[in-house]
Amino acid sequence: MPPRRGGDRGGIGPVHDPAREPSVGSLVQQVGDGAGQRPGLRRTGHVVLEPGEAIHLTAGNLHAYLHGAGIELMGASDNVVRGGLTVKPVDVDELLRVVDPTPLPRPIMVDAAATGRYPLPEAGCTLVRLDAGAAHTSTGDEVAVGLDGTAWYVPAGATLTPTAPTYIVVPDC
Q1: pLDDT digits (tens, 9 = 90+) for 132-151
Q2: Model confidence pLDDT, tens digit, residues 59-118
């Protein structure tokens, strides 16, 4: 079976503006000042990723996306806890129970951008970068997302040759 392409969603490439530093005031302005919307702001750290870079966070790490687009991979779970910066309900007691406030010394996966392989052992997979025009043959059921907004399901044994840079979720076997 050949790869199946998902619907086009428009151009969703990396967007980065290093001159724009977030402040608590600007974040509150974006989501409002309601109760429960700011419990995590006191311990936030600001990490800027360049296109192709990745950050590795294990369970319990509070995070938010402020600009750009990204791919977030997690193991199967039904326990996502909101930490604020949203108009949706936030369970502050549960957040305080599960969050790990320990700063991560090096959350950016430095070697990953150079190798194009982003190992995620907690999720049981590796995210692999595939350049436009390069061919990839699936070793199992895989999902691919192109920076042009396309997405594919790639069954075992199928070959994918994207026309834009693409990231493929490859299960660890």
Answers
A1: 999 999 999 999 999 999 99
A2: 888 887 777 777 787 777 767 788 877 778 888 899 889 888 887 777 888 888 889 999
Long-range contacts (CB closer than 8 Å, 24 or more residues apart) made by 129-135: 129/52, 129/165, 129/166, 129/167, 130/160, 130/162, 130/165, 130/166, 130/167, 130/168, 131/165, 132/162, 132/163, 132/164, 132/165, 132/166, 133/161, 133/162, 133/163, 134/161, 134/162, 135/159, 135/160, 135/161
Q: Which residues are catalytic?
A: 82
The span from the CA of 14 to the CA of 70, in Å, is 7
Global pTM reads 0.68
Q: Are 27 and 75 in contact (CB under 8 A)?
A: no
